[in-house]
Specification:
Blueprint (H helix, E strand, L loop, with lengths): L2 E8 L2 H14 L4 E4 L2 H12 L10 E2 L4 H6 L2 E4 L10 E4 L13 E7 L3 H16 L5 E4 L6
Parallel strand pairs: 1-6, 1-7, 2-4, 2-5, 3-4, 5-6
Helix pairs in contact: 1-2
Length: 144
């Protein structure tokens, strides 16, 4: 049963996605980032332009097999197959098709985009309807 985490109150969803990718790579985890073509294009550019010490090598789901074999981070459109089922980072509007095959699912929710928050609520309900209890990580909470 996958662990489902919602990272909420995120000021910049794509910058947060890049940090999650960097952390996954450093932990030698395989990560699929799913989103629209526009979102993936922006994430792709951001990952290539990180600081040299933070470089996150990655590829697209339609890359040649030898590139996919060498890559821990794969950018995929909704419905595109990804071989590794370790970790899924969803930047799409809907729950990805193969989410139940992953060990961990991470949803990233904007701090100030009401439409994104509404879609996230729908995804939360969908996971619950499937018998899973997502865990909320509120990144907007201040610690004392």
């Amino acid at each position: 049963m996958p662990e489902i985490a919602f990272h909420t109150q995120v000021p910049d969803r794509l910058a947060h996605a890049c940090r999650v990718a960097r952390k996954a790579l450093r932990a030698q985890r395989h990560l699929a980032i799913v989103g629209s073509a526009e979102v993936l294009e922006r994430v792709d550019t951001m990952l290539w332009n990180m600081a040299p010490q933070d470089f996150v090598a990655h590829c697209r789901a339609d890359s040649p097999e030898h590139v996919l074999q060498a890559s821990h981070i794969v950018l995929a459109l909704p419905g595109q197959a990804v071989a590794s089922r370790d970790m899924l980072l969803n930047l799409g509007d809907d729950v990805p098709e193969a989410w139940g095959e992953y060990a961990q699912v991470v949803e990233v929710v904007s701090a100030d985009d009401e439409h994104d928050k509404q879609l996230a609520r729908q995804r939360w309900r969908r996971y619950r309807e499937c018998g899973h209890e997502p865990v909320k990580h509120d990144l907007g909470q201040k610690t004392v």
